[in-house]
Design brief:
Elements (H helix, E strand, L loop, with lengths): L15 H13 L13 H10 L6 H21 L3 E6 L4 H10 L5 E5 L3 H14 L27 E6 L9 H15 L4 E7 L4 H7 L6 H17 L8 E8 L4 E8 L3 E5 L2 E5 L4 E8 L3 H10 L3 E7 L5 E7 L1
Parallel strand pairs: 1-2, 1-3, 3-4
Antiparallel strand pairs: 4-11, 5-6, 6-9, 7-8, 10-11
The structure holds N,N,N-trimethyl-histidine.
The site of N,N,N-trimethyl-histidine (AVJ) has 11 residues, from strand 9.
């Protein structure tokens, strides 16, 4: 999937022309596909927060339970005077649990493309840790980062990538992203990555098909966004959310399925959908611990530690060179 994002304007968002070109390319390819980062406009980000509160969506709760139990051990593994760089806007709860345990942290650098989300997380963390220097970076973490100069010399730079977001990347792109982290963390640095583990497929599928339909709304919001930002005319009643666990590939594959034969305007193009044609919008990969270790190895990284939540659903891996 096209998980690597285009160049951005100064406000960090792709321009309308870039967005249009990328969407047209995705809709002309076979099978049709759109990148999952398109979910996260303002409404999409709010819907994702509601997904995290659904009883079926175990990932966030398990990752928080993991940190509640193991954050002290994790912090000990990294040692004192860490510069913590987080990919994505920090969920205040997770980041707080980690920062509370770090000994004498040097600074916290949240990296986030959405300027409002970045501001919110900095305000929250600033209130919780008034002494800690915050160095927000409004940037796309899939691209090379220029990290701000730290306020004092850190012993170690740790890149924190929670939430199993790495699972949204196809394995080649995931390896490339891990390799990029390896460069940014430097010789002595480390990576802390949250990973959803393989488990009963019924449990996984339920997490992406909550009974309240929040995930379906989240997926369909992609079309709402394209209608608004590109003037498309997707009929929201003519597409359905479908999320299935592909055992062979070890991932949830989310599609938007056309409910009838139809044509949609996308800029100057008209895109034809057959009845029951499925457009790929998201992968969410699930890993066995050994599979994840092999993925890290391909990026030149080694698993130093692994922690799991009490139910063994979700893992945090500490990686080093
Ligand atoms: C935020 C990317 C980790 O893949 O589980 C939740 C996004 N998609 N429900 C995931 C998501 C559908 C989520 N990540």
């Amino acid at each position: 999937m096209n998980t690597v994002r285009p160049d951005q304007d100064d406000d960090g968002q792709p321009s309308r022309a870039q967005l249009l070109a990328l969407v047209q390319r995705g809709l002309r390819s076979r099978p049709k596909r759109l990148p999952s980062w398109l979910f996260y406009d303002e409404r999409g980000s709010r819907l994702f927060e509601r997904i995290c509160e659904q009883p079926e969506y175990y990932l966030t709760r398990c990752e928080i339970a993991l940190l509640e139990r193991h954050a002290a051990d994790i912090a000990r593994a990294f040692g004192p005077q860490v510069r913590l760089v987080e990919y994505g806007s920090g969920n205040a709860v997770k980041t707080r649990l980690l920062l509370e345990q770090l000994e004498d942290p040097v600074c916290y650098v949240p990296v986030e493309l959405a300027a409002d989300a970045l501001r919110v997380s900095v305000e929250r963390l600033g209130r919780l840790f008034p002494e800690l220097p915050l160095q927000p970076l409004c940037a796309d973490f899939t691209r090379p980062l220029r990290l701000p100069v730290a306020p004092r010399a850190p012993r170690r730079t740790v890149i924190y990538f929670p939430g199993s977001t790495l699972g949204n990347f196809e394995s080649r792109d995931a390896v490339a992203l891990l390799r990029k982290m390896r460069g940014e963390m430097g010789e002595a640095g480390g990576v802390l990555v949250g990973v959803d583990l393989k488990k009963d497929p019924a449990v996984i599928e339920a997490a992406y098909n909550d009974a309240a339909g929040v995930t379906a709304d989240f997926t369909l919001n992609l079309l709402v966004r394209l209608n608004r930002e590109l003037g498309c005319d997707f009929d929201l009643d003519a597409f359905r959310h479908r999320a299935r666990y592909n055992r062979l590939a070890g991932r949830v594959e989310t599609h938007l399925v056309s409910q009838r034969a139809q044509e949609v305007r996308v800029g100057r193009m008209r895109i034809r959908f057959a009845a029951q044609e499925a457009m790929l919008v998201e992968y969410s990969a699930k890993y066995a611990p050994a599979e994840f270790a092999a993925l890290a190895n391909r990026a030149g990284l080694t698993v130093r530690h692994r922690w799991t939540d009490p139910d063994g659903m979700f893992a945090a891996f500490c990686l080093g060179r």
